[in-house]
Amino acid sequence: MNRLPAAAVVLAVAGASCGDVAENEDLVVISVGEREVTQAVLDRFIASRTGLGGTLDTPLLSGLLEEFVREQLLVIAAEEEGIEVSEVQVIEETSALRRAPGPEVIRTDGEAVAPESAGGEPEDPDDWLRSRVRDRLMVDRLLDTVVLAGLEATDEALQLEFEANRAFYARPETVTLSERRFDDRESAEAAAGLLREGSGAGEDDADPFLPVGTFRRGELPDAVDEAVFVLDSGDTTDAVETAAGFRVFRVDERLPAASLEFEEVRDVVRLTVLRQEADVRVQALLDDLRRRHPVRVHTASLAFPYVGSLPRVE
């Protein structure tokens, strides 16, 4: 299950403007049971979830709409359970968010603007942010105290998961790299040649290589991947051209792929099983909520083409 903390969900304090004309903001674009959501409210949610530049494409916008609907359904469930959060909690979380830097607001007509100018000044940005914080806190409490309460994974379930997915829990081949950086190919090739001849830094010299990290096959750019995964520990590459300039890489450690025993990965398997069970519980709750609180997307009023799977109203 993908859960985000409140700070990751509520970053923007003002809304974005969707569509070409301001009057479209008051049109109802989503119905969740008896609740009606306007374009302006959806815009603000989209702004709070994105810090991207350029135009947001239709699949992404549709996905954000469905994320918003999911959250609204869970808020309804929290209200049905009588879950409340104190005003002190809301104020504290809101204050923390206001101190944190937020993303620029992205309008769904493709124009990126600063939060204070997005779609004009909201009537009460404080009310909007507090509402978002309250919703997120209620959903978190619902999941923790009701939906996921008593969630456990039996030893039998762990063993079944491990046996069914041994390849997933195997240790992949990895390399741990350091690099030297150069402004031009000639300098990089000269340094690589000296290293091959054993004429690099002497024992008393500082190591000129900077640590990069540990990587699996496919995680590096193709040129780097091809250069380092044919080397042994301690070997260095020829000059490699990257998007950031020329590099010479050293393989500090290379570990081959290996099968692991259950006890070595028990904790990882447990987290996987718990996540799967959590997803099942949340999905069952959402299915029940949709039956009792039908969702409709009003496509004729929406400022972008909806390509998701929710029911539509033309």
Description:
The chain is an alpha+beta fold and 314 residues long. The protein is built from nine helices and ten strands. Strands 2-1-9-10 form a four-stranded mixed beta sheet. Helix 2 crosses helix 3. It is extended and about 75 Å long. The model is unreliable at 1-22 and 103-122 (pLDDT under 50).
Write the layout of secondary structure elements.
Elements: H1 6-9, E1 28-32, E2 35-38, H2 39-49, H3 58-80, H4 87-99, E3 105-106, E4 112-113, H5 125-147, H6 155-164, E5 174-182, H7 185-196, E6 210-216, H8 222-228, E7 240-242, E8 245-255, H9 266-292, E9 295-298, E10 312-313
Parallel strand pairs: 9-10
Antiparallel strand pairs: 1-2, 1-9, 3-4, 5-6, 5-8, 7-8
